[in-house]
Amino acid sequence: MTVRPATPADTAVVAALEQDNLGVDAWSETLVADGIAGGLPTISYLVAEHDGVVVGHAVASVVADIAELQRIAVDPAHRRTGLATELLDAVIGSAREGGADRLLLEVREDNAGALAFYAARGFVEVDRRRRYYRDGTTAVVLRRTLGRGCGAAG
């Protein structure tokens, strides 16, 4: 498995992963294409390949000292294989390189698996956003420090 920056050739499969994983909250293929092409200057897309096939992606934004994981999605047939961890590790590395000292993300409060995944990787709850998702579900805001600053130990 390899993680690499997404290219325009990955647009359709990334959009399909969005739809399969996020349903009504999925981003459109047009928005995905714009992000991959660099039309959103703070956004970067990474894809994970297995045997040459894209089976996961992550989307992150870095602005000054704050990074935000906006998306992480894995094809259902490749879940529980370490792929999400590899994508997350790549996002963390990119965020640090971009100068971020913390990584933020939102998770649906009813997504126990994702909450456990992030907790096991050092994320802590810092807030909640009521009625954040289209269906009215609350988002749990999580944060992980990435080094000095933002409450990190010396």
- How many helix segments? 4
Spans of at least 5 consecutive residues with low confidence:
none
Percent of sequence in beta strands:
25-35%
CATH class group of the domain at 2-104: Alpha Beta
Strand arrangement in the largest pleated sheet: 1-2-3-4-5-7-6
Largest sheet: 7 strands, mixed
Question: Which structural class do you get from the secondary structure elements?
Answer: alpha+beta
In CATH terms, the superfamily of the domain at 2-104 is Gcn5-related N-acetyltransferase (GNAT)
Annotate the secondary structure layout.
Elements: E1 2-5, H1 11-22, H2 29-36, E2 43-50, E3 53-63, E4 66-74, H3 83-97, E5 102-108, H4 112-119, E6 124-129, E7 139-145
Parallel strand pairs: 4-5
Antiparallel strand pairs: 1-2, 2-3, 3-4, 5-7, 6-7
Helix pairs in contact: 1-2
Report on the structure:
Helices cover 28% and strands 34% of the residues. The longest helix has 15 residues, at 83-97. The chain has helices spanning 11-22, 29-36, 83-97, 112-119; strands at residues 2-5, 43-50, 53-63, 66-74, 102-108, 124-129, 139-145. The mean pLDDT is 92. Helix 1 packs across helix 2. It has a domain at 2-104: 3-Layer(aba) Sandwich (Aminopeptidase). The protein has 154 residues and is α+β, with helices and mostly antiparallel strands.
